[in-house]
Amino acid sequence: MTEIAGAAGLLTDTQRQIQELARDFARENLAPHAARWDAEKHFPPEVIRKLCELGFFGMLIPEEYDGLGLDTVTYLLALEEIAAGDGSTAISMGVHNSLPTQMLLRHGTEAQKERWLKPMARGELLGAFALSEPEAGSDAASLRAQAARTADGWVLNGAKAWVTNGGTAGLVIAMARTDREGERRGARGISAFIVPTDMPGYLVGKPEDKMGLRASNTTSVYFQDLSLSADHLLGEEGSGFIYALQALDGGRLGVGAQACGIARTALEHAVTYARQRRQFGEVIAEYQAIQFKLADMATELAASRALLHEAARRRDAGDKTAAWASMAKLHAGEMVMRVTTEAVQIFGGYGYMRDYPVERLMRDAKVITIYEGTSEIQRVIIARELLSTT
Ligand code: COS
């Protein structure tokens, strides 16, 4: 594949090295197995262990907390490569790096960082993020899980839905209400808690049977009278929803990088196939109908990546990036659906068959328009920013 489909651009030496490391890893350890893992609905734990050895589970965590201390663009470059090999592995890695570790880094006390963040950065403790509930998806602030104050801490009750790494994580950052029935405070009644998954009262539902990303672990989790000492509250009481949305700004960039990786692989397969497949006496790459599809796919992918990296640079510069993250995630989600759908179209009848990789990529792509905020919610966030008067 030529330069135009890749993320080479004007990268620093470190960015190029990390990108190559991730690419080599993905080509050797992920891509050859992705179809089988999809069928088996599971990827082996060694994959995560090997990624941890590379430091890829502490990419955005400063070195003082045992992470690699990389900037967001470098992280996204690596995540795109991992997603190009296997989208399921990418979401496991992306959630850990973007959500629970970032919440601990930004809002944890030094003692919490020492105890939880450092082992997460070293990859000894896998993280998850639990916000959504069966009745609270897009309207996340309507969540009902309750954390009631006790003499020396909190007791949690409630159900969380669609938790990535829910059955494999060692620690979950969970959002729960700390306001009381009758004194509801909306988004300001929600707090964030550090929940080790080996606590009594942490229960895991069966792995979800999903359309795509079938090898990643997604479960419901339940808190049943789960007791936590006071030092498991993260940051200030009543600020948990804001912390979660802040973290999701970063998570959405990760999901955008995942989209770029999946789209790039679909495009590569489509180019290879178009050069080989003969119809009406010619390889189909000779036909303008196919050429224009490929050209549009490459253009859309490059535009998505550019927007994503712009949003990441702004985030690292400390700008307000909620709307940028939403624009990047919206564009990437819609882009990856179009690119993977066109890849299936170029493969024709073969594209619809499980024997060829593009139908899996199309299935993997779909959730990117749904999770970490649907395309519609991203538009709400962008429009609110455009129309706000402050
Ligand atoms: N960063 C920091 N703070 C933010 C923020 C952000 N990106 N977005 C909103 N906030 C703050 C607001 O300023 C507000 O704070 P105050 O109480 O001080 O006013 C608070 O958070 C509540 O925000 P808002 O009033 O906008 O909340 P809404 O209930 O209207 O919800 C949306 C806003 C719809 C944007 C939010 O619920 C959302 O993103 N939903 C999708 C959830 C999602 O992505 N789920 C996927 C989970 S992972 S599978």
Secondary structure topology:
Elements: H1 13-30, H2 34-40, H3 45-53, H4 72-85, H5 87-98, H6 100-107, H7 110-121, E1 127-130, E2 146-149, E3 153-164, E4 171-177, E5 190-196, E6 202-204, E7 218-229, E8 233-234, H8 240-276, E9 278-279, E10 282-283, H9 288-316, H10 322-347, H11 358-366, H12 375-387
Parallel strand pairs: 1-4
Antiparallel strand pairs: 2-3, 3-7, 4-5, 5-8, 6-7, 9-10
Bound molecules: coenzyme a persulfide.
Describe the structure.
The chain is 50% helix and 14% strand. The chain is α+β, with helices and mostly antiparallel strands and 390 residues long. The strands form three sheets. It has a four-stranded mixed β-sheet with strand order 1-4-5-8. Strand 9 and strand 10 form a beta hairpin. Helix 4 crosses helix 8, helix 8 packs antiparallel against helix 9 and helix 9 packs antiparallel against helix 10. The longest helix is centred in the middle third of the chain and has 37 residues. It starts with 12 loop residues before the first helix and ends with a helix. The model has no long low-confidence stretch (mean pLDDT 96). It binds coenzyme a persulfide. Coenzyme a persulfide (COS) binds next to helix 8 and helix 12.
List keywords for this structure.
single chain, 390 residues, alpha+beta, four-stranded mixed sheet, four-stranded antiparallel sheet, 12 helices, 14% strand, globular, binds coenzyme a persulfide
